[in-house]
Write a structure and sequence with these properties.
Elements lengths: L20 E2 L8 H11 L11 H13 L15 H16 L12 H9 L13 H4 L1 H12 L2 E2 L2 E2 L1 H14 L11 H19 L10 H8 L7 H11 L7 H8 L2 H10 L2 H9 L4 H34 L5 H5 L2 H21 L5 H8 L8 H18 L5 E2 L2 E3 L5 E3 L21 H10 L6
Parallel strand pairs: 1-4
Antiparallel strand pairs: 2-3, 5-6
Length: 441
């Protein structure tokens, strides 16, 4: 038995990981191909989405911010008018909505809550670190552009139609255009708030501002209006929307919807979807299924190696890792699944990309050699991550032993599963369907 190393670690053979940033996602480089197929299934939809009201909030934001020049920035030198408007919306909803369920899915709500507790206003420094990506504009922008809500940074034709339907539902006549009415008064009030927010580089309204109640009454995430919901549904199910319509139609089938609620299994759902799929969708689903089986072998074997290293609490040799049943099964099956996956991805134009990324697994190897190949693949994936590479989760030593780094230890036995490794947009589309009243949940 190999002696355990508890405190003194030998010199690393290739590099000092302290000089590299952490790369805590996608350790085997499997995400990009999965995401490419997910985009084909549901263009514009992302996993962090699920609340259609934020699409309307973006249309309203674009209508309000038409008053400002494209080059306008807050005095922080970075925040554009739409970002300032987002601060007001998020702070307003947190100020006025007391039921946590009403705030579900609202990006930045904890930041707003802490700012209010500290007596501060939302600003670049008191909001999300990468607000342009993780705020609601960032999360929903790709779908807003896909649907035509935003075009070249301005309100698109569908965005205008959606904002008009929202204003009608909410009784805000005059919010768009030059006609008078209560809506026009509110638009001017919001524009003034954004203008002062740009000047201050932060929310520039106190606790008694009437605009806070406007956010609760007219932009609450759970209160999508009838005309508004109908328009968003129409846009999501447009023929140009990839297979969003096909997915939503099958999810709306009572037995399928009930099964999804019970299992949340995209593998099962895709089998149900395939029953009525056209030939192109059938090819895409076949590509997904084959790729996910391939990825499942790699992921489970990698996690099993992390678990074995965690239990060893010192250097672990390849023969110890290769003794694990999951690693043995992966070593025996991956080569055949590589061939099947390559063939399934050919009609989708993704086979060359797959070959470039996973050629390491195209030929059979003995178990110990295979597990070394798996960990070398992980190291190469981490090294290639921008901008300057990321530290590996598993360190290799001169004597051929491995140690899993503390943040990536795996304490519990690996739960072997046949479920997908990656997500393919069923969850956000189901959430859209619930919020739009297309299904009961």
């Amino acid at each position: 038995m190999e002696p355990q190393v508890q405190a003194k670690l030998p010199l690393l053979s290739q590099y000092d990981p302290a000089e590299r940033a952490e790369g805590s996602i996608d350790p085997l480089g499997t995400y990009a191909i999965a995401d490419a197929m997910a985009v084909r299934l549901a263009p514009g939809v992302r996993e962090r989405q699920g609340t259609p009201r934020f699409l309307t909030a973006m249309a309203v934001s674009l209508a309000v911010c038409e008053a400002f020049d494209d080059a306008s920035l807050a005095n922080d030198g970075e925040s554009p008018p739409w970002q300032v408007f987002e601060w007001y919306v998020v702070e307003g909803l947190v100020r006025t909505l007391r039921d946590e369920a009403e705030l579900k899915g609202l990006p930045g709500r904890e930041k707003a809550r802490r700012a209010l507790e500290d007596g501060a206003s939302l600003s670049r420094d008191r909001y999300l670190k990468t607000a342009s990506v993780f705020g609601y504009h960032g999360v929903y922008r790709v779908l807003a552009r896909e649907l035509g809500i935003e075009v070249a940074g301005r309100l698109g034709e569908f965005g205008y139609e959606l904002a008009r339907a929202w204003a009608t539902d909410e009784g805000l006549d005059g919010f768009l255009g030059s006609a008078g009415g209560d809506g026009q008064r509110w638009r001017v009030l919001l524009q003034d708030a954004v203008r002062d927010g740009l000047r201050n580089g932060a929310v520039a309204r106190g606790g008694q501002w009437q605009g806070w109640q406007f956010m609760a009454e007219h932009l609450a995430p759970r209160n999508t209006g009838r005309r508004e919901a109908a328009l968003i549904t129409r846009a999501l199910t447009d023929a140009a929307g990839g297979y969003r319509r096909a997915i939503l139609d099958v999810l709306r089938t009572p037995d399928v919807g009930a099964d999804w609620l019970k299992t949340k299994s995209e593998r099962r759902f895709h089998r149900q979807l395939a029953r009525t799929a056209d030939p192109d969708l059938t090819e895409l689903l076949a590509g997904v299924a084959a790729y996910e089986q391939f990825c499942r072998w790699l992921q489970d074997a990698f996690d099993e190696c992390r678990h074995e290293m965690t239990l060893t609490r010192g250097k672990t040799k390849p023969f110890q890792l290769a003794a694990r049943a999951t690693v043995q099964a992966a070593a025996e099956r991956v080569t055949d699944d590589y061939v099947r996956t390559y063939q399934a991805l050919q009609p989708l134009g993704l086979a060359p990309r797959f070959e470039q990324q996973f050629a390491d697994f195209s030929e059979p190897l003995a178990r110990e050699a295979w597990v070394v190949r798996l960990l070398e693949h992980h190291e190469a994936v981490q090294r290639a991550k921008p901008p300057n590479g990321k530290a590996p989760w598993v360190e290799r030593f001169d004597d051929g032993g491995y140690v899993v780094r503390p943040p990536y230890r795996w304490d519990e036995p690996v739960a072997i599963s046949d479920e997908y490794v990656h997500a393919y947009r069923t969850r956000p589309l189901w959430s859209f369907a619930v919020e739009l009243g297309l299904v009961d949940a």
